[in-house]
Structure formats: structure tokens, C-alpha cells
């Protein structure tokens, strides 16, 4: 793990790093030492580790709860090189949708492919970050919607350090098997008029979680219109589950 | 409107009253004067105006937000006389369920019958309570789940003074038409494993609300197992919508 830059704003220290080929960012409270809860955040498709929605939430989790937060670029996103295989799949999928195919199964199948790389990558990131003095081996949470849900479900299912997860804007097509193996508390976010994820698929994914404690929040509006007040709920959820 | 008793605890004044044949209870902050938001609460089936779930929520709305809260007994509930017609319907329904009929449509049809009485009753209660100096004609909210949802949907649809509603544990069978006429913000509570309200009916009711701003919260568990933390969300919702 190699740190490449460090800045600070509003009491939140931001450190860019690389772990092998993976570019990442770690947020911790200024001057923090000792073990604390850690939230791993997965960004959306076409976004990256420092997308505005990720940074805003990371600042709330760090400044409001004293947590550490880490995010990395998914393959072919942010500072990572393009992947010819992914480009080929994307081009194929566009052609299929143009020819009348459904979008959701194509997205799901692509996310399942990417998850086979990100699950081991994210486990390695957890290992490295939890070795740092200002993070340590405290309870871990996961936050991710859209692509961050598609990649997050298999990760949370595979990683016993994760004690609670916020997921959403994703459907059951690729993830139902993994979802059934998740038993930690889940907060699941749905946009009722999501144009990318069919409502039935979204509800089926929530239904598939094996967790005894799970809550679904659905709001009116499309895929990109999640109301800002849900972030308050994310903070309360992680404070309760990890704090 | 005739007040019959008054007590106070933890800064909350509780006044029992009758309005014609309707027994009710009004909660306001101790020593309150002047106009304030008012929440009308509808109790569940077999319960009454001072059921523990109603009293606990009323205290939070009054002590936490400075609101007034009013609840009345539904026909054939609490201090109101039995209704031979309702008893006959209940007996019929038990026989039908024993013979293999579905429960949900029978509940829905019964609630629609009762709502034809409670909508005008509750409008009269609003008129009377808003005439009081310590309540006044401020914004009105409605809270009701289960029977309180079945009776609440037609009430909220009919009553323009209601600016926001918490509803839940109810389905679309009897209420979809009224629900489509509701345009105020709605917070809708679902128990994912509700043994009385089929999940599809519950989701269909949420879908039917005409409101541009609507949020569904679903939690794992049965009809009577709504988690206590949802009350915090009710308080925040009404504070935002009425405060």
C-alpha cells in the first residue's frame, strides 16, 4: 500500500493510495489514532472513487461518526485502464438493446463478471487498510448502490468482516444466490420509478437477503433521483450497527 | 365538544372528550396556547383511542415537536357501543375464512364500510379541535396503520386540511381509488412478512398513491412486529412536513 497524496478539509483527512494496481482513497478524522469502524464504499457505473456522491457520504460518516471510509476505483473506472473485454461487452449490449433486448439482464450479467475481480480486490483493500494504525480491525460496513450494489452483494456475502450493509438501486438477476448468503443487517434503497432496474427485480433482491434484520426504503423518482434525506438514514444505520 | 377529564404527565396534557357520540382524547403540550400543527391518529382493529401504541406516539409528537394530537374511538371500538351489523359481518367472515376464503378481501370490504362513517366523524373532530385556542387552524397530519390505514386512506383523500400522512400495514383492495386522489407527501410502512396483508396488495397501495413525494419503509417481520425505530422516522417526517 503506497500513499501518494494527502489533504484535509472540515476535519476530514483524505489520503490517495495505490494497492498494487488498485487506486484508492482513505478518509479518516484529522489526527485520528486507534481502531475505529470502517465503511467500504462502492461507486456507481461510470463513476469513480471520488465521485461527488461518494465524497459527500464519506465526509458524513467520518465527521459525523468518527469512522474511517475507503473507496477504490472499480476495474475500467476512474484512474484504472480501460478493459478491452468490457468495452466489447458494452458495445455488444448496446447493439442488443437497440435490437429490442431487455437492459436489466445485460447489466446484471456484466456486474457478475466484474464482481469476480472486485471481491478479491476489496478483501485485499480491507486487509491493507485495517493494518493502518488509524483504522485497525474494528467493525466493517459496506455502502454501495447501482454498480456498487451489483458488486457489493457478492462482496458482503463473501466477507465475514462486514457487519452491516447499505445496498440499493439493484436487482436480483445476478445476485439472488449471493444475497441469500447475506445474514447481516441490510438497509436497501429503492427508487420506485427506476428506469434501469425493474421494480420486481429490486423487490426480489430485498426478499432474497437472508438477513433477519432488513429494511427497504423506497422513494418516488428515477434511478438518479434518490432524495438527499436518505443519507441521514445511512448515517443513523451505520452509527447503530457499527458504532 | 365536552371535556370529561384532564391529566398531565411528562409535559403532555391529556384531555378526554366526547363530540356527540364520539369519545376522543386530545394531547397538547402543558400550558400550550396558540395555533400549532395537529396530528389525527387512527387506531388499529380491536384497539382504541388510548391503545399503548397510540399513546406512545402521541407523547413523542407532542413532547418532541410541540404538536397537538387527537384520537377517537372507531365505531364499535373502545368506549363505543357494539354494532350488531359489524358483529354479523365478523361472524360471517370467520365462517368464510374457515371455509377457505381469503382474509384480506374480507378485511378490506369491512374497512370500506366503516370508513363511510369515520370520514365524516373525523372531519367533525377536526372542526371541533381546531376551534380550540391551544390548537387552532394549523397544518394537519394523519397517522394510522392497519385499520387506521384502511380508514385513513379515504379520510386523507377527502380532507384537504391534511398536508401529510403516515399510513401502512394496509393493502389496495378497498382503497386504491381513494389512494389515487391523495397528493400530499406519504410515508408508508410495510411489514415484509405481514400475515394479514398480502405483500403485493401492500405494494399496490403504495403504488396507487397520487403523491409526487412518497416513501415506503419495509421491515422484516409480521403484522405486529414493526420496529420501534420507525417511530423516530414518523417524528422526523411530521416535523419536516408540518413543522
Automatic annotation (TrEMBL), chains A, B:
Does the keyword section mention NAD?
A: no
Which UniProt keyword terms apply here? Hydrolase
Top-rank lineage group of the source organism: Bacteria
In terms of InterPro entries, this protein maps to: AB_hydrolase_fold, FrsA_esterase
Q: Name one GO molecular function term.
A: carboxylic ester hydrolase activity
Transmembrane region(s): none
In which family does this protein belong, per the annotation? Belongs to the AB hydrolase superfamily.
User: What is the protein named?
Assistant: Dienelactone hydrolase
Q: Which organism is it from?
A: Polymorphospora rubra
Amino acid at each position: 500500500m503506497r500513499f501518494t497524496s494527502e489533504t484535509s478539509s472540515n476535519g476530514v483527512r483524505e489520503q490517495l493510495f495505490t494497492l498494487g494496481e488498485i487506486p484508492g482513497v482513505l478518509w479518516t478524522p484529522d489526527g485520528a489514532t486507534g481502531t475505529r469502524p470502517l465503511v467500504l464504499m462502492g461507486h456507481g457505473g461510470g463513476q469513480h472513487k471520488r465521485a461527488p456522491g461518494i465524497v459527500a457520504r464519506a465526509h458524513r460518516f467520518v465527521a459525523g461518526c468518527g469512522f474511517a471510509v475507503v473507496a477504490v476505483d472499480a476495474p475500467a473506472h476512474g484512474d484504472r485502464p480501460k478493459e478491452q473485454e468490457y468495452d466489447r461487452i458494452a458495445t455488444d449490449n448496446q447493439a442488443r438493446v437497440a435490437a429490442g433486448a431487455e437492459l436489466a439482464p445485460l447489466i446484471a450479467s456484466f456486474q457478475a463478471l466484474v464482481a469476480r475481480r472486485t471481491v478479491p480486490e476489496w478483501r485485499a483493500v480491507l486487509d491493507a487498510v485495517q493494518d493502518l494504525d488509524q483504522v485497525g480491525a474494528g467493525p466493517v460496513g459496506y455502502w454501495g448502490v447501482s454498480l456498487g450494489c451489483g458488486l457489493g452483494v457478492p462482496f458482503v456475502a463473501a466477507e465475514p468482516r462486514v457487519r452491516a450493509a447499505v445496498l440499493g438501486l439493484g436487482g436480483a438477476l445476478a445476485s439472488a444466490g449471493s444475497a441469500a448468503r447475506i445474514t447481516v443487517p441490510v438497509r436497501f434503497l429503492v427508487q420506485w420509478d427506476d428506469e434501469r432496474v425493474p421494480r420486481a427485480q429490486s423487490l426480489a433482491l430485498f426478499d432474497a437477503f437472508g438477513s433477519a434484520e432488513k429494511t427497504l426504503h423506497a422513494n418516488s423518482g428515477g434511478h438518479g433521483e434518490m432524495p438527499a434525506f436518505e443519507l441521514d438514514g445511512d448515517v443513523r444505520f451505520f452509527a447503530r450497527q457499527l458504532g
